[in-house]
Recover the amino acids of this structure.
């Protein structure tokens, strides 16, 4: 590979010429692979920062094999962390033979592309099963039944007891389809499928890994990011990084590809937040200040977002009652209708220039392409 | 009192299907009608209701939902005149049989004389259906091919997308309304929500202006382009 190497386009060409290219490039490296519906990019950034050495990693969004090839061609760094699109995880695991696979969560997202979430869990399970020859360590969220179903057949699993608010996609048992029963800290099914033990990583009064308390102070907001960091620290421990030192390094992560950053736009100060699906929105809405302040939300339904915005009805927007929501994006009318039926005060913004400027910082929640649009038109603070 | 019950959203609720119950309840309340709205989850018995809603779901959950509904009072209540609004998997399981993984002729509830087999390919995309003098707009994502029995009328004619078979979509059989347009189809089509409410209440409703009308006009313009 010469011209075009280190780019996604170059990666695509390379894979066409040599289908095993990804596996060949990964050989000899220590690879951590990460997948899940939400938090992939942020957790990848936390692992990279925490490792404390030169880390080879893929660009935001380039999370399919061509993007992984591009990353591996660009850098010879031994330490490697790859964010992987959920649908590509089996292929990447087969080729790369990673030391660690981190499974964050699994829920509905872009159903027009990926179709059904239970099928995804079954595909993950087949590739990680001990009989499939996978010999690495799986770091898995013990509170997501679909993740547990995917990971339980692996020969070596470390279970992480991290809070997982979104369980709407796992009300029925992934093994037998009967109802899962949730009780305060645990869950189970009458067929025997249940929250696994022993737990390696917990979040009682701070992160505890293998019985050792790890002081963690993140600079990025949200309880979901503490959960992401706990999984990242567990993964780093497996490859020999001291979690206490790694946690200090993670404190330096202040934004990830524009997410969580403050931006200026036409006199407004905006905090840019990315939410692509119901569980992502659920987590961000839970983290919003309960101050009745204005909230901006931008929704598109382009190819990268999924063409079907039906999922707006799976988001608990009712939590925004008491706030005024300004609706932006190509599908602002879909959003406004959802808010209207949910009893939330809204304004459809056909002319963004006409929105009155407030003194306070306004949270702006946007889905994938809407987020990129806002990152482009706004300036750093 | 209008009672609106969404059945087994934990099994059948893949694509924001819960939105349909919300829309019916909200549009009735705004006309001053008293409404009780509930979700009937796994393990709960089926309450008395004027309107039952069924959503879409994956194969395993669809099979389980069908078995559970066959056991309870649902079939009897529908035969007694309760209205049903069903989308996608819900549309299929009301019929004689449907295809799921491992069984091409899984027995349905037999409330409507229809049969669903596996289509040649999955149909994913926007759908537009002519229903009387109106256009229904929505999104479909399913692999079914549904044939209607001789006495069953389709909901409408497919203008875009596939619906049952590329020609017609859904069905209207007495008190049962069904379409492959999944998720919040009633949020996108306020006129259909009102038609259903009017048929349940047996009277005409006052017009209700809202942002949903703007959304409908925008989607209709975009789909009939």
């Amino acid at each position: 590979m010469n011209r075009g190497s280190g780019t996604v386009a170059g990666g695509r060409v390379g894979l066409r010429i040599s289908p095993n290219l990804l596996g060949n490039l990964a050989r000899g490296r220590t690879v951590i692979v990460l997948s899940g519906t939400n938090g992939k990019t942020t957790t990848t950034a936390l692992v990279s920062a925490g490792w404390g050495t030169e880390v080879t990693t893929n660009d935001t969004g380039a999370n399919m094999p061509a993007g992984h090839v591009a990353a591996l061609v660009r850098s010879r760094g031994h330490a490697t962390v790859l964010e992987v699109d959920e649908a590509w995880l089996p292929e990447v695991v087969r080729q790369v033979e990673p030391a660690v696979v981190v499974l964050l969560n699994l829920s509905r997202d872009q159903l027009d592309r990926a179709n059904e979430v239970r099928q995804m869990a079954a595909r993950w399970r087949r590739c990680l099963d001990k009989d499939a020859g996978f010999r690495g360590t799986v770091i898995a969220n013990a509170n997501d039944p679909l993740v547990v179903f995917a990971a339980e057949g692996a020969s070596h699993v470390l279970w992480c007891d991290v809070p997982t608010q979104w369980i709407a996609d796992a009300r029925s048992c992934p093994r037998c389809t009967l109802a899962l029963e949730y009780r305060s800290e645990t869950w189970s099914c009458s067929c025997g499928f249940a929250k696994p033990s022993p737990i390696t990583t917990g979040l009682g009064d701070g992160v505890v890994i293998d019985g050792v308390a790890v002081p963690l102070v993140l600079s990025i907001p949200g309880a979901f990011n503490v959960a992401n960091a706990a999984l990242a620290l567990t993964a780093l421990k497996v490859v020999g990084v001291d979690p206490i030192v790694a946690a200090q390094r993670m404190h330096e992560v202040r934004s990830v590809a524009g997410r969580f950053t403050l931006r200026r736009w036409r006199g407004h100060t905006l905090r840019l937040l990315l939410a692509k699906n119901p569980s992502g929105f659920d987590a961000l809405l839970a983290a919003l200040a309960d101050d009745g302040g204005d909230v901006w939300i931008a929704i598109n339904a382009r190819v990268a977002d999924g063409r079907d915005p039906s999922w707006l009805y799976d988001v608990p927007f009712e939590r925004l009652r008491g706030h005024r929501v300004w609706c932006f994006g190509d599908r602002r009318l879909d959003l406004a209708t959802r808010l209207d039926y949910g009893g939330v005060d809204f304004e459809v913004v056909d002319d963004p220039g006409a929105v009155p400027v407030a003194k306070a910082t306004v949270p702006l929640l946007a889905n994938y392409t809407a987020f990129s649009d806002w990152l482009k038109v706004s300036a750093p603070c | 009192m209008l009672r609106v019950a969404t059945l087994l959203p934990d099994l059948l609720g893949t694509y924001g299907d819960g939105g349909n119950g919300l829309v019916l309840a909200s549009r009735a309340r705004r006309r001053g009608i008293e409404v009780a709205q509930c979700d009937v989850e796994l393990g709960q018995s089926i309450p008395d209701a004027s309107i039952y809603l069924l959503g879409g779901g994956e194969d395993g959950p669809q099979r389980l939902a069908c078995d559970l509904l066959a056991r309870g009072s649902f079939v009897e209540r529908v035969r007694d005149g309760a209205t049903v609004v069903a989308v996608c998997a819900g549309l299929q399981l009301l019929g004689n049989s449907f295809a799921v993984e491992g069984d091409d002729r899984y027995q349905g509830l037999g409330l409507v004389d229809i049969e669903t087999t596996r289509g040649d390919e999955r149909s994913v995309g926007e759908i537009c259906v002519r229903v009387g003098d109106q256009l229904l707009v929505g999104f479909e994502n399913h692999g079914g091919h549904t044939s209607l029995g001789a006495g069953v009328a389709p909901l409408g004619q497919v203008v875009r997308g596939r619906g049952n078979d590329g020609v017609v979509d859904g069905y209207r059989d007495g008190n049962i309304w069904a379409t492959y347009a999944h998720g919040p189809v009633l949020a996108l089509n306020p006129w259909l929500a009102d038609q259903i409410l009017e048929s349940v209440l047996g009277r005409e409703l006052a017009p209700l202006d809202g942002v949903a009308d703007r959304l409908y006009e925008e989607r209709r313009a975009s789909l009939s382009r």
